[in-house]
# Entry
Amino acid sequence: MDAPTPTSLQHEVGKQHPFDAPEQEAYLNLMRAHAVLSRAFAGLFKEHGLSDAQYNVLRIVSSAGKEGLRTETIGARMVAQDPDTTRLVDRLEKAGLVTRKPAPEDRRCVVVAATDAGLLKLRELNDKVFGMHRAQLGHMTASDLNQLSRLLFRARHPHKGGDAVNQVEES
# Structure
C-alpha cells in the first residue's frame, strides 16, 4: 500500500488506510477546511460580541438599508442557515445592533433593520474580515479561487449542469 502524500488529508489526520471512496475524502476535506478557516473568524467575531451567524444576519440586514428585511427573508439569505433566526435577531436587538417592527403589510411578520450602532460594528469589522480572507486564501490564484467556487457550487447543486453554474455566476 502506498503511503499517504504529505499534502493529503489522509496524511494530515494520520489515517492509516486510504478513504473508502473519493466522495468520502472530498467531504471530509470540506469539513476540515471549514473547521480550519472558520476558527479565526469565530475568534474575531467573539471579540466583537458576535457569533458567525449574528455577523451574517447583521450583514444581510444592513444591505437592505433603512427599510430592513422580514425575518423569513433573512433566514433564506443566510450562508449557513440557522433554524432559529428569531433568536439571532433577539440577541442583536438586545445588543442595540438591530431594531424590529411589525411589517406594514402584515403585522404578523417582523421587519428587522440595522441600527447606526450595527452599521458601525460592520464598518469596524470590514477590513479585518477582508484581511482574514486574504490571509487565508491569498496564496491561491484568482483562477484557483474561481475554480474552487465553481466546484463548491456544483457540490451543493448536483442536479444543475454547467450552464446553470455559469448563469448563477454571471448574475
